[in-house]
Amino acid sequence: MLEVWRGGLLECVHQGHAVICDAKGIVAAWGNPEAVIFPRSSAKMIQALPLIETGAADARGLSDRHLALACASHRGARVHVDLAGRWLADLGLAETDLRCGAHEPGDRAERDRLVEAHEKPCQLHNNCSGKHSGFLTVTQHLKAGPEYVEIDHPLQRAIRAATEEVTGETVAGWGVDGCSAPNFAMSVTGLAKAMATYAVAREGRGAREDAMHRLTRAMAAHPHLVAGEGETCTELMRAMGGKVAIKGGAEAVYVGIVPEKGLGIALKVVDGGYRAAEAAIAALLARVGVLDPAHPAAVRRMAGIQRNWRGLETGALRIADGFAA
Amino acid sequence: MLEVWRGGLLECVHQGHAVICDAKGIVAAWGNPEAVIFPRSSAKMIQALPLIETGAADARGLSDRHLALACASHRGARVHVDLAGRWLADLGLAETDLRCGAHEPGDRAERDRLVEAHEKPCQLHNNCSGKHSGFLTVTQHLKAGPEYVEIDHPLQRAIRAATEEVTGETVAGWGVDGCSAPNFAMSVTGLAKAMATYAVAREGRGAREDAMHRLTRAMAAHPHLVAGEGETCTELMRAMGGKVAIKGGAEAVYVGIVPEKGLGIALKVVDGGYRAAEAAIAALLARVGVLDPAHPAAVRRMAGIQRNWRGLETGALRIADGFAA
Known about the structure:
Chains A, B: It comes from Rhodobacter calidifons. Chains A, B: This is Asparaginase. The structure is a homodimer of 325-residue chains. Chain A is of the alpha+beta class. Helix content of chain A is 40%, strand content 19%. Chain A has a single domain, classed as Beta-lactamase (3-Layer(aba) Sandwich). In chain A, helix 8 crosses helix 9 and helix 13 packs across helix 14. Chain A is globular.
């Protein structure tokens, strides 16, 4: 998928699988479209379906901002932490009700604030705190038990069912994600098909399509909530003017929902290298005609000049011949 | 080389090239031993040869601690920053004479100190500041110009010549490294051969062997200066009781010098994934019989149970079948 060049020599290569689907099936594919992968955080819009479909989101009056945060892998900036914190408070819950664990935020300002205040990061800083706030919203609505990340919890059973419905596949297995939630394995094609169902979803055609349409719109409208300043998700969604939703996942997964073309995209870099996943999603979005390949945010990821600590040019990224062609 | 498993499914795979050489040539190889790579920081013991061979190190009374730091990619902890700072002061030079650029240190305590003091990291925090202090020592000794990272500078010409001598290859090209120094390309075999020449070097057999022997001994004796607490170089060298020198490089290169076996090791992970380079060097050191594969520092890298932010087990690393066998 991606080559990394230095001094005129090829220094690194990333390989992967990618699929573009429309509502009928595969439109284009590279690598092995049947490869079974963990979608990781790129499944967050699937994991958020019960939030809307159970009626929990409406019962709690959640806004598109909440829904975007439910689908986010955010940087733990104040905007993310504050929104998740208020959300939990509105539910009458606390940070300690989360089950995602804590890690240092990616956002530099918030990280420095914590260091200066001698504060430890809390679970609200976890990049998945929005998803987990959504999980708690459903859990409360269903009057289910507090251990909402257990595989047999009603919420996770609902997510598993939704996963099988939107991918058209029986779940191939499951693993524990970084945030402790179950993550259901699927083929790259299954994930791309699922994204295509989001892309063609329209309002007023049933609860499932309503939910998909709403989540896609919420993500595309709030790029800074889905990731954060400087992040690929945020920058590329902005570059596409709020009409496309994209989402990355750990170990180099990326998905795209392209409503105007009725297309879903899914890709996985075999080695888990993020730079390749970010380059590949940009290349595929450019290929389907929704991302200007000359946009600085696209160029930086697909063909970025690499510079060192003194700003000297050291090399460049290059999309591998044949990929996204 | 390395597989990453989650929930009983293979999530990621890293491929690479590796060679073990003795003084006569290749003993074992995996992948493509002729692949041309940038050794990056794994070439630091080659880049340090002029420091000793010009007489600069002795003229300045450098200790083994200085030599270990000259071969280091350190974490920018106080011990590293202070040693480099005193070294420059002893030369009558300042941090501003360095040409490595500045970046935030990996060491958490020093990073937090900087944040709390509202100080920016300086060039002494750069993981290559020891190498550059060595470069300045040679430059001063040779009465050469201050721009010591330029490709035609007498120091870089000396490093290029030494590189060709120890690898037995004509340099295949060069690139600008992260620290702005030229980095000379070579085959994985050439790098392993070079490490084998260090492994068999003995004192009293000429300036080259004296220099190689001294650098190897300095690195093996000061694992915490070569990298830092928690780092693979440091932990594995400690696990081997100070008898083996190993060194990583950017984009997932690793080398080993095993004097007691007369062996040199070099490897490159094709995608630049560090976890695979760290696993692979541990596996090869175990294979040649100098690292106990049951040592916790080895297990963690070769077969480590992976845990998430809440400490839950999510999967495990596994050396790929056939590699290092």
